């Protein structure tokens, strides 16, 4: 049996994925999580073979979960199922050791087949998306990405500084670097462009 932990913040989508995978004779859903922190706790307790996760969730994102798993060398493989058909997201996912990257609008039978491939040590990535992922490199570093994401949520430099344990001057420097790298006029334009490219 392939033991799967499912992490998805939208209850209807989570329910549909669970029902779909439950139809497969060799796949067992051992846990479900509505946010990244809960997924992390369940992952440590349940030790599934695969984590099937969305990218954007409250708490920890799917990419942050994958990065933790990679950093700690945990024996679980990660498959992302998302609406984000953007090369930037896929590139970051691959760098975080993700083994599968599927779009939610893909045919249902592809999901179970992809999980079997990943369980067997292969990758399951949309080929057209893979080409796009390497056509335009992400210019932002992790800290610039964190600061820009918080700025895009409307937080002030002081709030960002407190949240990330940085000085306000350092936060302003990161924002300035991100704006310069993206060639835009302000933090809002930088946030929009980075989101559209899949770099946030």
Automatic annotation (TrEMBL):
Residues 3-119 form the Response regulatory domain. InterPro entries: CheY-like_superfamily, Sig_transdc_resp-reg_C-effctor, Sig_transdc_resp-reg_receiver, Tscrpt_reg_LuxR_C, WalR-like, WH-like_DNA-bd_sf. Residues 133-198 form the HTH luxR-type domain. Gene3D superfamilies: 3.40.50.2300, Winged helix-like DNA-binding domain superfamily/Winged helix DNA-binding domain. The modification 4-aspartylphosphate is found at residue 54. Keywords: DNA-binding, Phosphoprotein. Pfam families: GerE, Response_reg. This is Two-component system, NarL family, response regulator DesR. It comes from Lysobacter spongiicola DSM 21749.
